[in-house]
Amino acid sequence: MSELTAGAAGARHAGADHLFGLRKTWWDPAPGIEMVQIHFAWTPPDGEPDWESAESRVMTPGELSRLRTAVLEVPRELDGSREYLLHHFFYVVRGTEWVSSPVFTEEVVTREVTWTDETGDWTHVGIGWGVSPGAPGLAAPNYTAAAMDGLTFEDAGAGAPPEPSPIHEFVRAQPLPHVFRGLVWGPRGADVRYVVHLVRAGSPRPEEDAEAWEDNGGAGWTITL
Asked: Residues 7-52: pLDDT tens digits?
């Protein structure tokens, strides 16, 4: 099981169906930096950030020298829209001195990922995905439950439900092939790596229920937002 697959399996049970994780990085430009905070806020496309109510995280030192990271939890929707602006800046403490970076603004966008089940073996498909800020292993894992064409009660942007819904008969009634569509999020221009989670649940004979992960030999697949 690849690192992204293992992380996505955990994200599936995290229950954050209205948020996604986005890892940010900071490289210390010189020794002696004691703390780095990242402050962040989101707005509609024409909005200005309110830094008084912004959120913040402490950047945690990583295994690589001078590398610090933090995972931001940001919304999958803002005021009914799946696209918005994410603003952030860094607050750096070194001894008795501190400095703030300029404000960085990114456009958060979505892209659709599709998976085709030619044989009708699976009742549910999930997309495990992450936006890498550099090395693939730094991507924060996320999970989206894909919606199958023809099932109007499913949402292509939903997080994972606690348990697969009992829709075996609805799925079997749809003509082949079955096409599943799920959304991934991130800053425009970023690369998203993803894997696919396949579930068969609610079979007439429970012993036929199954699940599997497709991860392209451990490499996953990559799309650009």
From this structure: 777 776 555 579 999 999 999 999 999 999 999 999 999 999 999 9
In total, the chain counts a number of residues equal to: 225
53 φψ region: left (φ > 0), alpha (ψ -120 to 50), beta (else): alpha
Max CA separation in the chain (angstroms): 68
Would the CATH topology of 3-16+110-224 be identical to that of 19-108? yes
Please state the pTM of the whole predicted model.
0.89
CATH topology of domain 3-16+110-224: Immunoglobulin-like (2.60.40)
Residue 219 CA to residue 174 CA, distance in Å, equals 31
CATH architecture of 19-108: Sandwich (2.60)
Long-range contacts of 206-215, Cβ-Cβ distance < 8 Å, separation of 24 or more: 213/1, 213/5, 213/9, 213/128, 215/1, 215/2, 215/4, 215/5
Question: Which among 13, 23, 15, 19 is positioned nearest to 193, based on CA atoms?
Answer: 23
Q: How far apart are CA 84 and CA 187, in angstroms?
A: 10
Q: What residue ranges do the domains of the chain occupy?
A: 3-16+110-224, 19-108
Q: Residue 117: what pLDDT?
A: 97
CB proximity list for 88: less than 8 A, separation 6 or greater: 24, 38, 39, 40, 41, 72, 103, 104
Answer yes or no: are the C-beta atoms of 127 and 194 closer than 8 Å: yes
* Per-residue pLDDT tens digits for 47-101: 999 999 999 999 999 877 899 999 999 999 999 999 999 999 999 999 999 999 9
